[in-house]
Design goal:
alpha+beta, four-stranded mixed sheet
Length: 178
């Protein structure tokens, strides 16, 4: 999902095909660091990706772009340093529904929020320099406040990423503009 959404963002903005290819690679590999640990996974993932791409004799400029995007996609330390990193951040952080615990009895706040988001849509409005994340949240399992408790840092990083792409970031939850 992250790879497709990141490609959609750059395609809609008219970026070259090569740039879209790089962001899709970064999108497919961005969470590889979770093999090591969730903490600091963007950094370990960047190192792992470097090794893989270097061993495949990938062009150093391509490696740099992909590794930089992966190393900067986490809200703890990441920054939208270029268009590829910015698109990856927006695609990754808008993918709220991706992780799901199947056991309702063991749900924590993250599980409740992920489970409560029924629909997630990332859309660029061509008439205005605007990228909008639309969420439909079922408040039976998690409140909108729970969402903000977990995702505030992610949404602030999305705003920075959108600005890097000369876009304005808007969040709409249950048809309410936030």
């Amino acid at each position: 999902m992250a790879a497709e959404n990141a490609g959609y963002i750059l395609r809609t903005l008219g970026c070259p095909e090569r740039t879209m290819e790089l962001v899709k690679i970064a999108g497919h590999l961005h969470d590889i660091g979770n093999l090591v640990n969730r903490a600091e996974h963007s950094q370990s993932g960047a190192v792992m990706t470097f090794r893989v791409l270097d061993n495949l004799d990938c062009d150093p400029e391509k490696i740099t772009t992909i590794v930089t995007a992966i190393g900067n996609h986490d809200e703890g330390i990441g920054q939208p340093v270029n268009a590829v990193a910015a698109a990856l951040i927006l695609a990754d952080k808008s993918d709220v529904r991706r992780v799901r615990n199947a056991d309702l009895a063991t749900f924590d706040i993250h599980d409740r929020v992920n489970y409560s988001v029924r629909e997630s849509q990332l859309q660029i409005n061509g008439e205005y320099p605007l990228i909008e994340l639309k969420l439909s949240v079922d408040t039976e399992y998690g409140s909108v406040m729970d969402y903000f408790e977990i995702f505030m840092g992610r949404m602030l990083l999305c705003r920075k990423a959108a600005e890097k792409l000369d876009l304005q970031f808007k969040l709409m939850i249950n048809e309410q503009l936030i």
